[in-house]
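Supplementary Note 2. Why include the ligand at all?

Several targets in our set were suspected to adopt different conformations when bound, so apo predictions alone were not considered sufficient. For every target with a known small-molecule partner we therefore ran a joint prediction. The input for zinc ion is given below.
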Amino acid sequence: MNPDCQHVREMMDSYLAEELSVETNHGVLRHLGECRDCAAELKRRQRLRALLSQTLDVAVDADRVSARISQAVDREQRSWGRVARLAGVAATLVAAVAIAYWAGRPVDAAAYDDSAEDHIVCALAYPEDATYDRDRAAQNLASPFERIADAIGLSHGAYDVIDAHMCPYKGRNYAHVVIRGKKGETLSLFAERAERGALPAAPTTVLAGDTLPVHATTRLGYGVSAVATRDHRIFLVFERPTDPPDVAQEILRSAVRFIRGLEK
Ligand SMILES: [Zn+2]
Ligand SMILES: [Zn+2]
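The joint prediction is reproduced in C-alpha cell form.
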C-alpha cells in the first residue's frame, strides 16, 4: 500500500467519528476523491459502523469495536477468509444481542459468541512482533486476576503469552491472556465472573486425566473450549487445534486451577 493510502487508512476511523481538524479533513477528502481503493474502504467502514451502532447501545463502544475490527482487517488484508469472517462478526453481533435479550437470566446465551468476538477485535489486533511485558501486564490486570498469566505459564513449547489485561467487552469484564504460537496463530484465554448465568449447552468433552467437563463449540470460525467453575467461566479461543493438542489442555487446566484457587 502506498504511504498516502496508509496514512489515510490510519485516520479513517477518526474521520468517521468527526474527530479530525478541518485541514486534516480536507486532506482525507482530497485523497478519497482520487483513490478508489480508499473510497471503497471508507464505504466498508461506514457500513460496519452503521451496523454496530444499531446493535450496540453505546455509540462510543461501536466506534471502538469498529476501529479494532478495521485494524485487524488492515493487518490481515491478504487473507480474504479472515475478511469474510470479520464481516460475519458484524452480522452475528445482531443475533448475539437478540439471543442474550430473549434468553433471560439463567443461561448466558452469548457467552461463546462474545469470547470469539473479543478474540477477533482484541487479540488479533496485536502486532506481529508483540512480546510479553511484565510491567504492562501488571498495570493492566486487576484484582483478583493479577497473577493469571504467571499461573497459566508464560511459555508452552511453541506458544508464548504475549500480553495479559482486563478486557471490557459488551458489559463483561474479562481477564484476557493473549497467546501466540511460533507459526503466528493467536489464542485467547478469557476468565470472567459468572454473573450472567450458566454456559449454554454445547457438546462436552472431558480433559484427559481429569473430571473436568469442557464445553466445546465453534463460533465465527474459531474453536471455543469453555469450563464453568463455581463462580467463574473460562474460555479458550483458538483458530486451529494446538500442535501438540496437549498444549491447549495444559493452558486450560492451569487456568482452571488458578481460578479455583481464587474461589477457596
Ligand atoms: Zn488511497
Ligand atoms: Zn483483550
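Strands lie at 155-156, 159-169, 172-181, 186-193, 204-206, 213-219, 222-228, 232-238. DSSP finds nine helices and eight strands in the chain. Comparable summaries for the other entries are listed in the accompanying table.
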